[in-house]
Amino acid sequence: MNEIPRPVLAEVPVERPSRPGWPEIVAGLAAYAVFEVVVIVYLQNAVLSAAMAGFVGFVLSAVMGLGAFAVAALLRIRRLAPFGVRRTSGRSLLAAVGFGVLAWVLAAIASLLYQAVTDDHQNVQVDYQAAAAGGVVWYLATAVSGFVATPIGEELIFRGVLANALGRYGTWISVLASATVFALVHGLNPVLPVAFVIGVVNALLLRRTGSVWPGIVVHGVNNALAMSVPVIVALASS
Fold first, then answer.
1. How far, in Å, CA of 218 to CA of 197, rounded?
2. Mind giving me the DSSP string for 6-65?
3. What superkingdom heads the lineage (predicted)?
4. Cα gap 151→96, rounded to integer Å
């Protein structure tokens, strides 16, 4: 008997979104919140020297950002370009170094104003600074984890996902909302205004260039100055 040919069903291509949206925001920030709780519980119970705590803190900050970004990126889009992970010009990267220095100065001023208004003078970065001041090996470890890895992780989730997704509502909603969330996750302390300034600068750079790399450079320069300047001052005064 001749078999009756069965109709061949054409495969319908899955159309993936061209940019992140609310599903990516919710998934990414939820994952970040879970990671942050785990990290806080771990650091509160771990017995570490100040330098080791600073280094581990930077490493875990990088892991939190990268992990949250992976959750958001794999949810629907599964491509890097829609999140701003794309090439940019050497001129933009060079300019980002200058913007990083400017952002560090503005952030320092904003932090001083915050401390004057709130009378909150706690140094929540003491462990990070201890890691940077622990000698050559510790400084290099801090540089890799704090000046490179942490900026990459945090920029991918807060600019690559959040600022990009909010871009559909206009530049300033995207810039201010993403910077506000970025500041709040750093806690109510003198680092909050610093994170807000960095968030604003980097979200504007993302809108300007379409790439997260200039913001990563700005973030890395800011972290490098924030950790290195106290060490240099201490060495000069000793």
1. 11
2. PPPPPPPPPPPPSS--HHHHHHHHHHHHHHHHHHHHHHHH----HHHHHHHHHHHHHHHH
3. Bacteria
4. 13
Q: Give tens-digit pLDDT for 138-151.
A: 999 999 999 999 99
Tokens 């510790």 correspond to 138
- Tokens 């300047």 belong to 229
Domain boundaries, the chain: 22-237
**Per-residue model confidence as pLDDT tens digits over 1-15:** 556 666 555 555 556
Return d(Cα 118, Cα 116) in angstroms, integer: 6
pLDDT digits (tens, 9 = 90+) for 61-118: 999 999 999 999 999 999 999 999 999 999 999 999 999 999 999 999 999 999 999 9
Give the C-alpha separation, 1 to 138, whole Å: 79
Amino acid at 179: A
Q: How far is CA 74 from CA 77, 81, 110, 121, 154, in A?
A: 6, 13, 36, 41, 17
Please give the mean pLDDT across all residues of the chain.
92
The span from the CA of 217 to the CA of 45, in Å, is 33
Q: Among residues 110, 80, 106, 84, which one has the least CA distance to residue 166?
A: 84
Residue 121 near residue 115, CB atoms below 8 Å? yes
